[in-house]
Amino acid sequence: MDGDGGGAAAGAAAVHHHTRSPEDVFRDFRARRAGILKALTTDVEKFYQQCDPEKENLCLYGLPNETWEVTLPAEEVPPELPEPALGINFARDGMIEKDWLSLVAVHSDAWLLSVAFYFGARFGFDKDARRRLFTMINNLPTVYEVVTGVVKKQSKAPNGSSKSSKSNSKPSKQTNSNSKPAKPAHPKEEEDSGREDAEEEDQAYLCGSCGESYANGEFWICCDVCEKWFHGKCVRITPAKAEHIKQYKCPSCSSKRSRE
């Protein structure tokens, strides 16, 4: 996916012409975020290989079509859009891989916010519009939270089962495609925290690949190594295929093992 630089600007012209509301800017934010999440999770092996320390300064761009690109920074000064962190490839071999990915994730979060609020400034968003945009963005877990599994810290396995428990016919790592995962109950004394608890619970059911929440009827599968949950479609696993998997490893964990 290497190119001649300025990957993020590729979709900027269309955004400039059509985006005027916070909701439109948020859609652009969400699409770029989805692309970056793919690079750092399901496509992590390809991303790792492309960040060659022998190459020049490289940047990770999330694109408006939910894809990603590792390429040189924009040549124009100033660039059409804010630029991502420069030279992520130089740090790759000097760090533990998970720490390097976490670092890229943090910088990616900062870049995504800067692009969104660049559009907000360009389109003259007022105080209420900026608040609306930030609220929508803030309701999604950050790239860092998804990549590091922070959103899973207090989670329970869907269906309310633990990792070690087994159902009669299927391993607990597979959710019932016809039911929504049961959410863990909180003690009565915590009821006053209301919204905060609800947000924490919602974060417990976020796909480790796309970061989106569980929807009724969707098939999910859990990685037996990192214990993150994934939409079956995000990791290309069908319910029928899952029936024959004794121990499932997500793309990220599989690629780590292959490099050890």
TrEMBL record:
GO terms for biological process: chromatin organization; regulation of DNA-templated transcription. Keywords: Chromatin regulator, Metal-binding, Nucleus, Transcription, Transcription regulation, Zinc, Zinc-finger. Residues 155-198 are annotated as: Disordered. Residues 204-256 form the PHD-type domain. It holds the Pfam family Alfin. GO terms for molecular function: histone binding; transcription cis-regulatory region binding; transcription coregulator activity; zinc ion binding. Signal peptide: none annotated. GO terms for cellular component: nucleus. Residues 156-181 have a biased composition (Low complexity). The keyword Nucleus applies. CDD domains: PHD_AL_plant (cd15613). It is found in: Nucleus. InterPro entries: Alfin, Alfin_N, PHD_AL_plant, Zinc_finger_PHD-type_CS, Znf_FYVE_PHD, Znf_PHD, Znf_PHD-finger, Znf_RING/FYVE/PHD. It comes from the Eukaryota. The keyword Transcription regulation applies. The PHD-type zinc finger mediates the binding to H3K4me3. PANTHER family: CPG BINDING PROTEIN, PHD FINGER PROTEIN ALFIN-LIKE 7. Belongs to the Alfin family. Histone-binding component that specifically recognizes H3 tails trimethylated on 'Lys-4' (H3K4me3), which mark transcription start sites of virtually all active genes. Interacts with H3K4me3 and to a lesser extent with H3K4me2. This is PHD finger protein ALFIN-LIKE. It comes from Dichanthelium oligosanthes.
